[in-house]
C-alpha cells in the first residue's frame, strides 16, 4: 500500500471517475487534477510517487507537465495516457523517462498492471552507489576500457531491478554475454535463462517458439508445445534481435508485458508467468519504430534500461586483453601449449577495424592456436588482409612546442586548423593507433576516421606482400 496518493491528471470528468474507481477499489488512494496548474500545486502538497497524466490538457501538454513534476520529484513514476498512439508522442514520452504509455480506452486490468509495475520500479530502483567508473568485468565480458566500465556499472545497478533491459550493439559485440551477466547477478539467478534468437527463426516458427501452441486435432499440431516464455517462468527470457518480430508476435509480447501471462497459439487460456525480459538488437530500435516496423508502445515497454555495447574498434586496448584470454582458453581446449602474442601481432590486432567485432576476433584466434607451431602467434599466422594493412598513412605531424601562452598558440588559427593539429599529434603519439588516439582525446574512433576522410588522409594504406 503506497504511503502517498496516486495523482490523476485528466480534464475529462468521466475518465477521472473511471481511473479513480479502479484504483480505489484496488486499495489505492487518489487525488485528482483537471489542469497542469492544479497538478503542480497538488504535487507540492502531497508529494505523490505515481502520476497518471493525460497528454492533452487545457493549459499545456502532458509531456511538459511530466517534465515539471519530475523536476520537483525525480523519483516520480509517470504513466502517460493518450487517445492517439502516435510514434512522435511515444518517443517524446520515452525521452522524459516516463514509466508507461497507455492508449485510450484503458482496460482496468491494464491500468492496475501499469500502476503495479510503476510501484515495483520504485521499490527496485537502480542503486546509484553501484554506478562506479571502476567497475570490474563481469561473467564472459572482458576488457577494462572506460566504455566497458560504464557497461559493467550499469549491469550491476540494474541486476537487482525487475525492469526490462534493452541491449544494443553491432553484431558480435557480446549482447548475449551481457544478458547472461545481468541474469547471473539478479535475484532470480537460480531460475532458468532462456534465449531466443528472433533473427534465425522463420516468421511462422518464431511466434510459437516464444509463446507455444495448444494441441489441435484438426491440424498437424497434435501435441502441445511449451514456448520459451513459459519455460522462462521464474527466470529470464532473452529475446535477441527482437526487432525481427512480426506484427502478431509483437502484439503477443505486448500482451505478455501488460498482463504477465502467456496465451499459446490456438488457445484461449492464459498461463501466468513471472519472468524478467531482456532483449537485444543490432539495429537501432528507435529507427525501427520511426519506420513503422516496430510498435512504439512495445518499444516503450522494453526500453526501460538501455545498455549500449561499444564496437571492438572503439574499445582501445581491450582487444589485446580479450585476445590474450582467448588464446589461453583455446590452447587449453585444443590441448596445445600456451601461446603468447608477439609485439607485432598485438600491433596488428590493435589497429584492425574488426567489422565482425569479438566474434571475428575469437574465430581468428582459434585458427591461430591451431596453425601456429611455436610459442608465439606471429603476424604470418594472421590472415593476409590483416597483414596488408598499415594502421595509418604517413601524416605530416606539426612539431608543436609549448607556446609562451595559449593566446600565442591560437593566434591566427581557425578552429578547424587547431582541431586538425591536435588530432594529428594524438595519432602520432599513439604510434598510429586510432583507437588509442580516440581514447586520449575522449572521442570515438569513428569521429577521427570521418575527420581523416574530410581532410583527404586515408586511415590505412595497403602494401604488397
TrEMBL record:
<dbReference type="Pfam" id="PF00158">
    <property type="entry name" value="Sigma54_activat"/>
</dbReference>
<protein>
    <submittedName>
        <fullName>Regulatory protein LuxO</fullName>
    </submittedName>
</protein>
<dbReference type="InterPro" id="IPR003593">
    <property type="entry name" value="AAA+_ATPase"/>
</dbReference>
<dbReference type="InterPro" id="IPR009057">
    <property type="entry name" value="Homeodomain-like_sf"/>
</dbReference>
<dbReference type="InterPro" id="IPR002197">
    <property type="entry name" value="HTH_Fis"/>
</dbReference>
<keyword id="KW-0238">DNA-binding</keyword>
<dbReference type="InterPro" id="IPR001789">
    <property type="entry name" value="Sig_transdc_resp-reg_receiver"/>
</dbReference>
<keyword id="KW-0547">Nucleotide-binding</keyword>
<dbReference type="Pfam" id="PF02954">
    <property type="entry name" value="HTH_8"/>
</dbReference>
<dbReference type="InterPro" id="IPR011006">
    <property type="entry name" value="CheY-like_superfamily"/>
</dbReference>
<feature type="domain" description="Response regulatory">
    <location>
        <begin position="5"/>
        <end position="119"/>
    </location>
</feature>
<keyword id="KW-0067">ATP-binding</keyword>
<dbReference type="InterPro" id="IPR027417">
    <property type="entry name" value="P-loop_NTPase"/>
</dbReference>
<keyword id="KW-0902">Two-component regulatory system</keyword>
<dbReference type="InterPro" id="IPR025943">
    <property type="entry name" value="Sigma_54_int_dom_ATP-bd_2"/>
</dbReference>
<dbReference type="GO" id="GO:0000160">
    <property type="term" value="P:phosphorelay signal transduction system"/>
</dbReference>
<dbReference type="InterPro" id="IPR025944">
    <property type="entry name" value="Sigma_54_int_dom_CS"/>
</dbReference>
<dbReference type="InterPro" id="IPR058031">
    <property type="entry name" value="AAA_lid_NorR"/>
</dbReference>
<dbReference type="Pfam" id="PF00072">
    <property type="entry name" value="Response_reg"/>
</dbReference>
<keyword id="KW-0804">Transcription</keyword>
<feature type="domain" description="Sigma-54 factor interaction">
    <location>
        <begin position="141"/>
        <end position="370"/>
    </location>
</feature>
<keyword id="KW-0010">Activator</keyword>
<dbReference type="InterPro" id="IPR002078">
    <property type="entry name" value="Sigma_54_int"/>
</dbReference>
<dbReference type="Pfam" id="PF25601">
    <property type="entry name" value="AAA_lid_14"/>
</dbReference>
<feature type="modified residue" description="4-aspartylphosphate">
    <location>
        <position position="54"/>
    </location>
</feature>
<keyword id="KW-0805">Transcription regulation</keyword>
<dbReference type="GO" id="GO:0006355">
    <property type="term" value="P:regulation of DNA-templated transcription"/>
</dbReference>
<keyword id="KW-0597">Phosphoprotein</keyword>
<dbReference type="GO" id="GO:0005524">
    <property type="term" value="F:ATP binding"/>
</dbReference>
<dbReference type="GO" id="GO:0043565">
    <property type="term" value="F:sequence-specific DNA binding"/>
</dbReference>
Amino acid at each position: 500500500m503506497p504511503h502517498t496518493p496516486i495523482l490523476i491528471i485528466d480534464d475529462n470528468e468521466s475518465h477521472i471517475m473511471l481511473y479513480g474507481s479502479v484504483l480505489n477499489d484496488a486499495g489505492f488512494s487518489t487525488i485528482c487534477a483537471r489542469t497542469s496548474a492544479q497538478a503542480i500545486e497538488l504535487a507540492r502538497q502531497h508529494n505523490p510517487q505515481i502520476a497518471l497524466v493525460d497528454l492533452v490538457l487545457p493549459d499545456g501538454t502532458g509531456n511538459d507537465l511530466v517534465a515539471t513534476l519530475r523536476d520537483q520529484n525525480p523519483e516520480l513514476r509517470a504513466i502517460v495516457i493518450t487517445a492517439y498512439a502516435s510514434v512522435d508522442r511515444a518517443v517524446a514520452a520515452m525521452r522524459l523517462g516516463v514509466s508507461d504509455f497507455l492508449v485510450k480506452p484503458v482496460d482496468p486490468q491494464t491500468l492496475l498492471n501499469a500502476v503495479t509495475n510503476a510501484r515495483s520500479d520504485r521499490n527496485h530502483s537502480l542503486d546509484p552507489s553501484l554506478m562506479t567508473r571502476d567497475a570490474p568485468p563481469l561473467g564472459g565480458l572482458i576488457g577494462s576500457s572506460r566504455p566497458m566500465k560504464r557497461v559493467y556499472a550499469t549491469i550491476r545497478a540494474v541486476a537487482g531491478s525487475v525492469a526490462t533491459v534493452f541491449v544494443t550493439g553491432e553484431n558480435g559485440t557480446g549482447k548475449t554475454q551481457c544478458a547472461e551477466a545481468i541474469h547471473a547477478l539478479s535475484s532470480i539467478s537460480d531460475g532458468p535463462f532462456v534465449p531466443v534468437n528472433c533473427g534465425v527463426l522463420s516468421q511462422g516458427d518464431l511466434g510459437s517458439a516464444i509463446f507455444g501452441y495448444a494441441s489441435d486435432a484438426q491440424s498437424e499440431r497434435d501435441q502441445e508445445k511449451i514456448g520459451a516464455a513459459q519455460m522462462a517462468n521464474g527466470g529470464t527470457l532473452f529475446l535477441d534481435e527482437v526487432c525481427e518480430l512480426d506484427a502478431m508476435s509483437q502484439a503477443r509480447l505486448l500482451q505478455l508485458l501488460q498482463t504477465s501471462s502467456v496465451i499459446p497459439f490456438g488457445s484461449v487460456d492464459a498461463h501466468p508467468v513471472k519472468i524478467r525480459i531482456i532483449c537485444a538488437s543490432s539495429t537501432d530500435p528507435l529507427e525501427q519504430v520511426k519506420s513503422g516496423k516496430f510498435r512504439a508502445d512495445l518499444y516503450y515497454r522494453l526500453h526501460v534500461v538501455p545498455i549500449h555495447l561499444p564496437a571492438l574498434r572503439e574499445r582501445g586496448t581491450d582487444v589485446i586483453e580479450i585476445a590474450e584470454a582467448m588464446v589461453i582458453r583455446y590452447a587449453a581446449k585444443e590441448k596445445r601449449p600456451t601461446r603468447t602474442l608477439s609485439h607485432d601481432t598485438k600491433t596488428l590486432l590493435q589497429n584492425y577495424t574488426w567489422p565482425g567485432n569479438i566474434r571475428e576476433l575469437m574465430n581468428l584466434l582459434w585458427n591461430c592456436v591451431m596453425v601456429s607451431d611455436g610459442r608465439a602467434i606471429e603476424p604470418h599466422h594472421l590472415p593476409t588482409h590483416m597483414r596488408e594493412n598499415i594502421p595509418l598513412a604517413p601524416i605530416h605531424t606539426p612539431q608543436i612546442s609549448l607556446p609562451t601562452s595559449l593566446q600565442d598558440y591560437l593566434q591566427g588559427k581557425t578552429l578547424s586548423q587547431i582541431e586538425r593539429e591536435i588530432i594529428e599529434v594524438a595519432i602520432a603519439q599513439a604510434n598510429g593507433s586510432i583507437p588509442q588516439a580516440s581514447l586520449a582525446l575522449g572521442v570515438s574512433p569513428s569521429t577521427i576516421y570521418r575527420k581523416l576522410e574530410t581532410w583527404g588522409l586515408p586511415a590505412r594504406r595497403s602494401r604488397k606482400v
